[in-house]
């Protein structure tokens, strides 16, 4: 066979091979259709629903709850503590005796002061009697007016001595009374700072009594927000240890001076505690209820605020689409933001933290089914074959 014929035969074989391969490719289903990407499964923690929510706007406050009325009972005299009559945490009435300090020396002074008063009173009676007798003699001309003046002076001196003795007696009574420590108002003993047998000096702390029926929070806010701060404005509180339970307070006073170093103004908020469920020392976070509206809103985590304008990822017809939105007021305490336009109530949005789900990605929502209730005449309850189960509300 010649070289030309051999080359032509090889060419025919190559063409036949290519034709066979091409026929195999056309017969393959994978080659005829592109492979569909599997949908991304999203759970209730990955999405939120646009719903009408009550949003509040105002300065956020934080601090520690303190008793609005508190008093530290201190020793006013020197001596040994004889009794500590109440314990920490015990309720007391106004004027109730809390502690006694030794008063032996003060009692001696009291006895001496009472004796001095009795002597001074007797001396004054004698001086007055003498003055009356000499006045009659002077009127009769028996004695001179000079002698009468001398008797009147003696009566003045006796009266002054009585006044001085009575002052000493009052002081002695006051000192003895200071050995009895009493509650200044009805409340609860929050601290017991001494024990029986202790030697105390004037100023030594013995007890701290608080009124737990009214608490107060001191906080600072920027001076730029003074327009919404005035006495009587309501404040909503969340207190550590009480979960989602909220409490209401009122602005009692706004400090008239601004701190020049921080630009902050101090305000005082009272929090009624008539049920005495709150304790002093707890941390509290509140917000001045300056503005309250019910608007369509979602958590801040569902909005991409880095974009201009802001955008959200909405699930529609099984796919993710990016939608521009217009934002309104923000509830900083609840971390919610108003959506004024771009979406409607009931739309399902992705959280920014739900992962890298790009626009156009097919998604599948898997939400927990609501427990079925059995109705009258139905044995086990359940959903009829021609009805879909109700949709479980998404987490806020």
By CATH reckoning, the class of the largest domain would read: Mainly Beta
CATH-defined topology of the largest domain: Elongation Factor Tu (Ef-tu), domain 3
End-to-end C-alpha gap: 86 Å
Q: Low-confidence stretches at least 5 residues in length (pLDDT < 50)?
A: 26-33, 372-392
| Range of helix content | 25-40%
The CATH architecture of the largest domain can be named as Beta Barrel
Mean of all residue-level pLDDT scores: 81
Largest sheet: 6 strands, antiparallel, barrel
Q: How many domain units?
A: 4
Shape: elongated
Structural class: alpha+beta
H/E element order:
HHEEEEEEEHHEEEEEEEEEEEEEEE
Strand-residue proportion: 35-45%
Q: What is the assigned CATH homologous superfamily of the largest domain? A: Efflux pump adaptor protein, beta barrel domain
Radius of gyration: 45 Å
User: Can you list the strand order of the major beta sheet?
Assistant: 4-11-14-13-12-15
Total DSSP helices:
4
Task: Please characterize this protein's 3D structure.
With 396 residues, the protein is α+β, with helices and mostly antiparallel strands. It has helices at residues 3-27, 29-32, 104-140, 145-177, and strands at 40-42, 47-49, 51-57, 60-74, 79-84, 91-92, 97-101, 180-182, 187-192, 199-200, 205-222, 234-239, 246-258, 264-272, 283-288, 291-299, 311-316, 319-324, 326-331, 336-341, 348-350, 363-365. The protein folds into four domains: 47-55 and 293-365, conserved putative lor/sdh protein from methanococcus maripaludis s2 fold, CATH 2.40.420.20; 60-68 and 212-292, Efflux pump adaptor protein, beta barrel domain (Elongation Factor Tu (Ef-tu), domain 3), CATH 2.40.30.170; 75-101 and 179-207, RNA polymerase II/Efflux pump adaptor protein, barrel-sandwich hybrid domain (OB fold (Dihydrolipoamide Acetyltransferase, E2P)), CATH 2.40.50.100; 104-177, Helix Hairpins. A six-stranded antiparallel β-barrel has the order 4-11-14-13-12-15. A four-stranded antiparallel sheet has the order 2-21-17-18, with no helix packed on it. A four-stranded antiparallel sheet has the order 3-16-20-19, with no helix packed on it. Helix 3 runs antiparallel to helix 4 (145-177). The chain is elongated.
């Amino acid at each position: 066979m010649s070289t030309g014929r051999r080359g032509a035969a090889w060419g025919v074989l190559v063409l036949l091979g290519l034709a066979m391969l091409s026929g195999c490719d056309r017969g393959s289903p994978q080659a005829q259709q592109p492979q569909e990407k599997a949908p991304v499964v999203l759970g209730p923690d990955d999405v939120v629903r646009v719903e009408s929510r009550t949003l509040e706007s105002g300065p956020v406050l934080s601090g520690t709850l303190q008793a609005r009325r508190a008093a530290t009972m201190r020793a006013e005299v020197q001596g040994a503590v004889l009794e500590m009559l109440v314990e920490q945490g015990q309720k007391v009435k106004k004027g109730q005796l809390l502690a006694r300090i030794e008063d032996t020396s003060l009692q001696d002074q009291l006895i001496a002061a009472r004796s001095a008063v009795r002597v001074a009173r007797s001396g004054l009676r004698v001086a007055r009697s003498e003055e009356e007798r000499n006045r009659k003699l002077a009127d009769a001309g028996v004695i001179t007016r000079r002698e009468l003046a001398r008797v009147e002076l003696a009566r003045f001196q006796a009266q002054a001595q009585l006044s001085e003795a009575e002052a000493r007696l009052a002081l002695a009574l006051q000192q003895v009374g200071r050995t009895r420590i009493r509650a200044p108002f009805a409340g609860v003993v929050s601290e017991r700072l001494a024990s029986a047998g202790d030697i105390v000096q004037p100023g030594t702390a013995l007890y701290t009594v608080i009124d737990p029926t009214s608490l107060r929070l001191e906080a600072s806010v920027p001076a730029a927000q003074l327009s919404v701060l005035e006495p009587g404005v309501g404040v909503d509180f969340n207190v550590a240890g009480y979960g989602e339970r909220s409490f209401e307070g009122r602005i009692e006073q706004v400090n008239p001076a601004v701190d020049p170093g921080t630009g902050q103004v101090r305000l005082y908020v009272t929090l009624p505690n008539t049920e005495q469920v709150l304790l002093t020392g707890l941390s509290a976070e509140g917000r001045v209820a300056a503005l309250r509206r019910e608007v369509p809103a979602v958590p801040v985590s569902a909005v991409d605020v880095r974009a201009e304008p802001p955008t959200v990822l909405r699930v529609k017809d099984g796919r993710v689409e990016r939608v521009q939105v217009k934002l309104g007021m923000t509830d900083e305490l609840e971390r919610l933001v108003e959506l004024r336009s771009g979406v409607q109530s009931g739309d399902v949005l992705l959280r920014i933290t739900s992962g890298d789900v790009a626009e156009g990605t097919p998604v599948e929502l898997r939400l927990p089914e609501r427990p079925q209730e059995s109705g009258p005449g139905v044995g086990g309850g359940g959903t009829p074959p021609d009805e879909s189960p109700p949709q479980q509300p998404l987490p806020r």
